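Readers outside the structure-tokenisation community will struggle with the description of the input data as it stands. I therefore recommend that a typical entry be quoted early in the introduction. An entry of this sort, consisting of the sequence and the corresponding backbone structure tokens, reads as follows:
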Amino acid sequence: SITTKEEIIQAGKRLVQERNLGALVITLGAEGMAIFLPGTGVYHLSTTAQKVFDVTGAGDTVIAVIGLGIASGLDLLTSSILANCSAGLVVGQVGAVGISQEELTAALGVWSAVQYEQWDTM
């Protein structure tokens, strides 16, 4: 079982190296997300969820929003920030729900200073 920050960093770096990945995103549930960017670093995004009612669809939301961000020309870290914020919105509702552009825009206004920290280098 991987539970500590150090174990997450070690496991993520090992995956990136062994699989020759260009990047890696690991969702950490209530602890947010870890982003591994070779040549740049390992970043942690804290969760933005205020209240958690149902985690159904949170992972799907993360994948969809990261994909949309990258397809729109955003970098992975920015796309992950949007995905993290989006997942924070969907877990605040019951069932598998979507969010609108307006809801995400409003939430980003509230969380305009979305914090991330660099955990390590790569």
Observations:
- Residues 5-120 form a domain with the UDP-N-acetylmuramoyl-L-alanine:D-glutamate ligase fold (CATH 3.40.1190.20).
- Residues 42 and 120 are 5 Å apart (CA to CA).
